[in-house]
Amino acid sequence: MGEEVKFSRRSFVKGVAAVGATAGIGYGAYSLTGLKEVEPIDAPVPGVTPSATSTFYNACPRNCYDTCSLVTTVEEGVIKRVSGNPDNSYTRGKLCVKGNSYTRSVYSPDRILYPMRQKGRGTGNWERISWDEAFTEIAQNIIKIKENYGSTLPICLNKYSGNFEIMHYGIEGTLSSIGYTSRATGTPCWPAGIDAQTFDFGTIYNNDPEDLVNSKYLILWGVNPAWCSVHSMYLVEEAKRRGCKIVAIDPILTATASKANEYIQIKPSTDGALALGMAKYILDNKLYDSQWLESNAKGHEEFFAYLKDKVTVKWASEKTGVPVEVIEQLAKEYAQADPANIWIGYGMQRHTNGGASVRAIDALAAITGNIGKPGGGAQYAQLETWGFNYHAMVHDAPEGSQGDGNRAINMNNFGAEVLAAQEPPIKMLWIAARNPVAQDPETSVVLKAFESMDFVVTADMYMNETVRMSDIVLPVTTLFETPGVNVSYWHYWLNLNEQAIQSLGEAKSDVEIAMGLSAKMNQLAQGSCTYPTEGNLEEWVEKECNEGIFTQFGLKDFKDLKTKKSVKAKNNLIAWADGKFRTPSGKYELYSEEAVKFGNKALPEYIEELQTPAEYPFRCISPHWKLNLHSQFQNLDWVEAIHNKPFIEIHPKVAQKMGIKDGDSIKMYNDLGFIVVPAKITATISEDIVVVYEAWYKDKDFNVNFTTKAIPADMGAKATGMPGIAFHDNFVNITKA
Ligand SMILES: Nc1nc2c(c(=O)[nH]1)N[C@H]1C(S)=C(S)[C@@H](COP(=O)(O)OP(=O)(O)OC[C@H]3O[C@@H](n4cnc5c(=O)[nH]c(N)nc54)[C@H](O)[C@@H]3O)O[C@H]1N2
Ligand SMILES: Nc1nc2c(c(=O)[nH]1)N[C@H]1C(S)=C(S)[C@@H](COP(=O)(O)OP(=O)(O)OC[C@H]3O[C@@H](n4cnc5c(=O)[nH]c(N)nc54)[C@H](O)[C@@H]3O)O[C@H]1N2
Ligand SMILES: [Mo]
């Protein structure tokens, strides 16, 4: 990246300063021209007796393993308490810090409650407008783009994981219903691992996490449930109580690792070498399950030949920094325990060889015959419970739409690809359930892309960095203000989401926004939008369900779900128990031709990790933070009261060498950008890394993604349309600021 991009970070700092100057950085950090104070809205839901205390069941829709079932107490139309559903054996009556702060998140003084227009993107000079004005301006812009370019391809949607409730796929539906558009495609989250497991097993499919308690040996491999899946931590601890040995493998001694029987500190991005070293030991000592391999696997001879030819435990030790004896002991214990289980995290696959690492770890489970049985497996994720109709999502382009489909824009290189798009260029962005300015790599480039647009619309609940770069913001409801239904990508529960309160201010759900826009588009240009213009949302939730869902969850019909609220899948809770893999051969594929088609090795071979360049001697790992969910929750004053400062973790020896003391202001930089944060000196990390947790802090000029480059991971294109991103291959240097 050249000078220009490097310094565009500064221009963003100016942008923030301008917001502060206009509004005074305080709650919300935006100015509302001519607005009176927001009154609390406490009108009850129609049909609910005012002043009565009512209980509603809600479903946490955040992008989180736990996807909890919530019990919401409402008094006189106001939420008083949100707690975990005790009848759900995964949620177990408890919530995480974020869940416990839901009451604040709904009534936060930060909530955006009205549609607003910004006079000058990034100025903070917002004015309240009516929904009619907002829809008119958006519709006119869409119609103008169609006139100028002959298609709607200059409009680009960026939507991801702000809300995973099934009706929120209506956001994709909104754009489909106006024509073919450009779409941010792929995911910054888990794609390399998905492809890896797709090559090996045919798809992602994990055992019911409640089955973790049946393990005798559990490796937590680059996963941090103590922060990122707190309800699973109960299961890990219960397994331990029943005699299971817990081993954590991570470059950071995480809160999870601190609860394990053994912690193994590994050099980042070398997990494949550790897994292959273990496999070699297992092969040499004949600890593999030849019977399982004979009946279930394809290519184990080729894999064993590769191990014999290329892998030694000593090599694995040199690569990973893990002593030979530790690798041997780990391999022996793992292979001899029955059943033995591995939970493969998403953090560990955010490397250029992340997919290959996941395949090597999967191979351990396969060669030891730990697949398809209780307490065993290679757990990553599952989509088995996601068989909805996607009724809110599927909408045809209007008749006469030009083009033959949507255009894919890589979500993992969003800024650069938006800027580079030609014939036609991208002119308008629609952002919903997404905060790309905070969460995408190369923030300075993302900001340039936003600056270059003719028109930006963002639908969100809070005034975040992306909203600040928009022309119009549309206020969306929280999960308590709209009905829905949710499942998890980890556990096997399905949770109903009931509307517990009326929407605050003028907030609308994403589907209601689509309906309103459709009405306006058709008013201005008949036939220009196929989205329904009205509909009962409760009925729409029912339309998402089908016989497959009812059978899977033991429900008679939708009414039955409305009575039961939270239900667990009845069968297929042990992945691959039937031995029918969904690969081309129907077997577990240690040798995958499909992998070759996507430019990868057929075998789970080691792919060299990126080496630290001399000028940027630290690898910056930027994992997820305990108190937020990406850019969500950290902005709440309740959460800020617990913790409101980003920091950089530095090993004591590095600190000593550089004369850095705890709390010193540190500049972390590379050729892309920099951040300035206080130092936290800690021996929980190794000397070759620094750690900065990714998060959005309200009114703080902090975003680690100013330094992360859009470096692709090795896999992801098959299942998600684009390769993943190597967030943790971020090489930096540090100096005292
Ligand atoms: N509190 C909270 N919960 C969350 C989230 C959140 O932001 N906050 N996010 C949700 C989402 S979207 C996701 S994807 C999941 C993520 O859930 P996790 O995968 O558990 O979390 P991460 O922080 O992404 O990464 C886990 C660990 O991977 C380690 N790691 C990084 N590189 C390597 C490596 O090369 N080898 C090994 N062995 N380990 C490595 C990191 O040090 C980190 O401790 O959590 C979900 N839950
Ligand atoms: N450096 C670094 N960067 C990372 C990662 C990392 O480990 N390191 N992790 C990556 C991962 S795993 C992920 S999943 C991504 C997450 O990236 P995003 O999907 O962008 O994540 P969020 O910040 O959870 O949500 C975005 C926005 O959705 C809004 N929202 C919530 N509910 C609704 C709704 O109902 N409607 C609408 N319209 N908006 C809503 C929230 O207020 C928030 O502003 O970040 C990635 N970025
Ligand atoms: Mo994620």
Automatic annotation (TrEMBL):
Q: Which SUPFAM superfamilies match?
A: ADC-like (SSF50692), Formate dehydrogenase/DMSO reductase, domains 1-3 (SSF53706)
- Spell out the InterPro entries in the cross-references: Asp_de-COase-like_dom_sf, MoPterin_dinucl-bd_dom, Mopterin_OxRdtase, Mopterin_OxRdtase_4Fe-4S_dom, Mopterin_OxRdtase_prok_CS, Prok_Mopterin_Oxidored, TAT_signal, TAT_signal_bac_arc
Q: Which cofactor does it need?
A: Mo-bis(molybdopterin guanine dinucleotide)
Q: Which Pfam families match?
A: Molybdop_Fe4S4, Molybdopterin, Molydop_binding
**Domain named 4Fe-4S Mo/W bis-MGD-type: residues:** 53-110
**Keyword flag Oxidoreductase:** yes
Q: Per UniProt, what is one GO molecular function of this protein?
A: molybdopterin cofactor binding
- What keywords are assigned to this protein? Iron, Iron-sulfur, Metal-binding, Molybdenum, Oxidoreductase, Signal
Q: Does the keyword Metal-binding apply?
A: yes
Q: Which domain of life is it from?
A: Bacteria
Q: Which family does it belong to?
A: Belongs to the prokaryotic molybdopterin-containing oxidoreductase family.
Name this polypeptide is given: DMSO reductase
